[in-house]
Amino acid sequence: MTETTEQPTKTTGTVDALLNQVAQGTEFHFQSGLCGDWTLMAEEPGLLKAYQDVHGLFADSSFNEDELTVVWQTINVYHSCHYCVPAHTAIAKQMGADDSITRQLNSGETLDDSKLQALRSFTEAMHLITYCSLRPGQCWRPA
Q1: Does residue 113 lie in a domain region?
Q2: For residue 21, is it within any domain?
Q3: Contact, 34 vs 7, CB < 8 A?
Q4: Beta-carbon neighbour count of residue 45 at 10 Å?
Q5: Staple 25 to which of 29, 66, 71, 117, CB 3.0 to 4.6 Å?
């Protein structure tokens, strides 16, 4: 993944409003600066809105704060995103997720809770299937 914190080159009023939600924390509680995926999505308002809508649906699912943290951080750590890992670490803390889960996820350790470790393994497998199918030849697995 290409890392960038650049702002999008073209935006519309719709995108500006969506990005303002991100910047002001009304939707995602993010810190300053955006990762490359946000910059790319901002170029296409429909994609950015769809991402935010799906994010909201997932956040409102039956998963508890620990389970949400496992799914988000598993993907963030996979990509070593300099923005998403610390942002979701802060979000996990805000939500009251167990600090040991965040520490273990960020350091690549096996999770103490076998149910959460199974969720992590499932998330990794599903993410790899999706990531590899969308990016043939660019699929990699971190050490």
Answers
A1: yes
A2: yes
A3: yes
A4: 17
A5: 29
